[in-house]
Structures are given as structure tokens and as C-alpha cells.
Amino acid sequence: MPSEIDLQIEAFLQSATTRLAARSVVAYREDLQLWQAFFTAEKISSLTDIQAPQLRHFLLRERQRGVSVRSLRRRFAALRAWFRWLRQQDPQITDPSRGLPMPKGEQHFPDWLGIDVAQKLLDTQPDAGDDWLQLRDQAILELLYSSALRVSELVQLQRHDLHLEAGRLRVLGKGQKQRIVPVGRMAREALQRYLARRPESTETALFLNRLGRPLGVRGVQYLVDKAGRERLGQRLHPHSLRHSAASHLLQSSGDLRAVQEFLGHAQIDTTAIYTHLDYQHLAQVYDQAHPHAKHKEQSHE
Questions:
Q1: What is the pTM (predicted TM-score) of this model?
Q2: Which ranges carry the Core-binding (CB) domain (predicted)?
């Protein structure tokens, strides 16, 4: 017996035949049939049972199967068109797709370092002695990797944002959102050496340039690239250290939510893509960690 969802999808397609080209109707049918199959497999039969986490789960599973982002965008667009039509018929119907972002286009991942290569970068350091600039550069490398900072976040750091004894750092991220991140032992030691030699200055910025002014984004990019070429024989961007730190943390912990908070991401799917987590693993983490998935498991016990 057809479910409420089946009947409403068919009604939408019948309505579309009077408004859209035949090719568009065929495309809508193909995409909505995939959603139907997913809802059936999840034992979702009524409109009120459809929730945003389930829709996200479907998209992640499809990506795991190798479906391109372009195809996912089309499938998501079909779902949104269906819900728009449903709300035209009955404004009381809730549209769970409205809170979800359209799947992003194919992304170019920044270069990232394996654990051994990252270790080589940080362990290979010149004898800085009293050279505060070399001590600064090493502290920056350590901190970028230890706390997975964006370069824009690093150059905004103030002296009072750093709490060495507690091993934490207050960071001002995108959208002026603050978060507290840990600072690893090696980074703390590098920062202590730098701060001991940092020139006396009225500037409150944590990192200064050779003129005693706040270090800028270009300065950080230059020193990171210089370290990459000298220590690894390759070009290196600050974002690669953030990307590497997040990837290594996720590999060791498997805690996607913790990594999301660590990076300051608003959406967890950003974290999954950013850390090139394979989507099969992501689906497993979702099943284990998402409240809705847990609720479903408990309801079957």
C-alpha cells in the first residue's frame, strides 16, 4: 500500500507535468524515487516523520557511494521543489530541507602533511640562540599545528589570549565567534622561548614583525613557506598545518564533534569535507553519535 510520502510525490509529479517540460519531470521523478527508496529503507512513511538529520544522512551516504556533488545538488533541489509544492498545498507542513545548506561544489583540498612529515617539519629547526625572529617562527609553526588555527586567527592573537600554564588559547574565529582551544606541550615550550626573547613593546599582539609591529597574514605565509622549502623541500601554506592537525586528530580520536568544535566549524559536514574523512566512516560516526540515530536504535530494543 502506498505511503503518504509516495502519494504526495506522485501528486507533485502529476502537477509538474502541467507546468514543466517533459525532460524536467523525468529528472524530478528519477531524483525523488531515490528519496522514496531511502525513506522506505528508513521506515519513514509520513511527512511529519521526515527530519533534517535524515536528509543530511541520505546525502552523506550518496556521497559515500561515489555520487558527484553536482548530482547531489540536483537531488537536493528536487527535494526542495517537492516541499515548496507541499507547502503551497498546505502552509502548515514543515519543510525540514530549509535548514540544510545545498551541497557545496567539488572542493580542492589544500596540501596536507602526513604525521611523519609534520614531525620532520617541527623537529628540524635551526639553533636560534638569541634570534627572537627564529624563535617566533618556530612558535608560530608549533601553534598553527598544535591548535589548528587559521592564519587570520593567529595574527589576531593578543598576549592576554594565551594562557600558557593552563595550556589553552582564546581564539576569535569567523563571524567574531570565540572558542577556547588547547595548546600542546611542544607549542607551549616554543612560545615560552619566544616570549622570553620578544622585544619590549607597547603592542599587545602576540606575534610581532621585525619592526615591532603586529605580524600580518603575508608575513606568516612567507615564514611558513620558507620553513617548508628549507625543511621539507616543498612549498607550504599555513592552512596546510591546520588541515593536517585536524586530519591527524580525527584519525586518532574518531570524534567528529570534538574536531568540529576544535576547528570552529558551524556545520559538521564542513568538518567532514575539510578533513577528507571518507564518507563511509562518517556514516558510521553519524550512526553512533547522532541523537536521532541513537533514538532509533533504542526504539528497536
A1: 0.57
A2: 3-87
